[in-house]
Every structure is written in C-alpha cells, then in structure tokens.
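Dear colleague,

Thank you for sharing your sequence with our group. We've completed the structure prediction you requested, and as agreed, I am returning the results in plain text so they can be pasted directly into your records. Please verify that the sequence below matches your submission; if there's any discrepancy, let me know and we will rerun it promptly.
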Amino acid sequence: TLTLGGHVSSEYDYLSLGGNASITRDFNRKNTTVGLSAAFSRDEISPEGGIPIPFAVMPLSGGTLPREGSSDTKTVIDLVLSLTQIVDRNTVAQFNYSFSRGTGYMTDPFKVLSVVEPEGSDNAGDPVEYVYEGRPDTRTKHALFGRARRFVLGNALDLSYRYFWDDWGINSHTVDLFYRQHLGGGHALEPHLRWYHQSEADFYRAFLVDGESLPANASADYRLAQFDAYTAGLQYYLPINRQINLTIAGEYYIQRG
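Please find the predicted structure tokens below.
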C-alpha cells in the first residue's frame, strides 16, 4: 500500500510547506506488516518585528528592536520504520523507530531569558535585563516505540512505551495505558493513565547571571527543562442510536519539575 500526502499551512508570521509518503507491505497471510514513512517540510518564520539577535537585550517599550533580518527558514526530514505483528487471536503488537533531522532556524523568537544580579550583590537574583534566547541551528531526534493491544475478558487493554533521545541532551520516557471496559449495549468506560519524564537540554538555563560570559546557546523554555508529567482520564461511550454515538471525556494533567 502506497500513500502520498502534502500540506500547506499559512499564518501571518509562519509558512509551512511539505510532503510525505509511506509504503507498507503485508506478509505471513497479513499477520505481519512492515512500513516505511518519510516526510519533508520547509518552514519560513517571519515573527513580528523580525528575527531577534540571540542574547541581544530586549529593549524598553519604544526602543529599537535588535534584529538580524525579517525572516528565516528551517527544514525538517522525518523517517519512520514500523512493524506490526498479530501475535495471536487476542493480541497485536507494534514497534516503530523514528528519526528526525532539522536544520536552520530552531530558536523560538518569542522566548527571552532573565539576566539577574550575581550572588553576593546587594540585590542578588533581581533581574537586570532580558535577552533573547539562542538555540543550535540543527537538531537530530530518535525514538523507539512499542505498543501492545490485547483482548482481555471481553475488554481491550492498550499499553505503549516510548523512549526518545536527541543531540540537545534530552531523553524522555513515556508510558501510556488505556483499558476499555465494555458495559453492554454499546456502552463503555475507558480509563487512561499516562506518565512522562524528560531530562533537560544541555543548554537549558533558568536565567543568566550578570557579568558572566555568555554561553554559545541558552533557553529558559520550560519545555526544554527536566520535568515529570502525569495524566489521568476517563472516557464514556454513550450510544444514542444506530447512527449516533456520544463520547464524554475528561482528563487531569499535572506537571512537576
């Protein structure tokens, strides 16, 4: 099976163009499926006021903006290798390896860092000024993913695990669990639990200290920090008639770190 696709996404400060293709092949009387997917995108970033100069001081209201151009670009290539295997009448398993390579403008133009008074000063920790962040202009990401779905006593259990690592120093673990409890007549309850942990990027900094030399790259974006996240949810499937089903869901998410 061959699938081809493409996308065009346009906002006032962002343009993304891309294409993708995937091919899958069945073996072993369709009990085994292997696949290869590839995607390419080229994005143009045109933030309000232009591209900030990394570590330039954010001006006061009305000041001259330190910019190095009106726009910049980045390209991203993604590859995914997949294997799906029917293990027995009640179990199906899936395994993926994914690779991603991004080059170009990887910085968030809207993120800044606080520069604070050094330790030992009269106002230690107080902000002196704010500077724009700067990130590396390349990023390589890898991920291994495994998933098993099993029919258990008339219900469905779905368990997955994902390990991610990149050359920015981040690695993460994700465990996702769903259990669909059939109640009869099309009614069902599905609780959901998810745990996520990641380490911080090599260049993550909560702040910079006034008077110290600037690093090559730095960002205070909490998404690049070390943290744990927990999700708990419940979904209810309510059949209205043969053509209409109503799904009611609620989830609670908490992040620590």
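Summary note from our side: The longest strand covers residues 72-88.

Kind regards,
the structure core
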